[in-house]
Specification:
This protein is α+β, with helices and mostly antiparallel strands. Helices cover about 20% and strands about 35% of the residues. The protein is built from 2 helices and 7 strands.
């Protein structure tokens, strides 16, 4: 299923699914129309959300303050607002075919 990116003013809204509690944070491809991230943070007290923002920031080279979880803060399924300038990078991510764990981009 294709990733559905929405425009909202000078931002894009990207659907994301997170799996918290992993050993390292990594991008794991597109699943069911969402970017899938495995996160090295527990799903408690906003830690996984903070790790998602940190990971996006590092992966896309944008400031954390430019990243906002607009819905799904307490859910594994989220909508994340990113600056429009991140669109090309998100489209490249969505086009990435993950074949095995050695292809997965990770950050600690």
């Amino acid at each position: 299923m294709k990733l559905e990116i929405r425009h909202s003013g000078n931002n894009i809204i990207v659907p994301v699914k997170v799996i918290p509690g992993m050993q390292v944070s990594l991008f794991a491809g597109v699943r069911a129309g969402e970017l899938l991230f495995k996160l090295a943070a527990p799903p408690e007290q906003g830690k996984a959300n903070a790790e998602l923002e940190r990971f996006f920031s590092k992966l896309l080279g944008i400031s954390r303050s430019a990243i906002s979880i607009v819905s799904g803060g307490a859910s594994r399924h989220k909508n994340v607002s990113l600056p429009l300038k991140a669109l090309a990078a998100i489209e490249r991510l969505a086009a990435t075919e993950i074949i095995d764990d050695s292809d997965i981009e990770s950050t600690k």
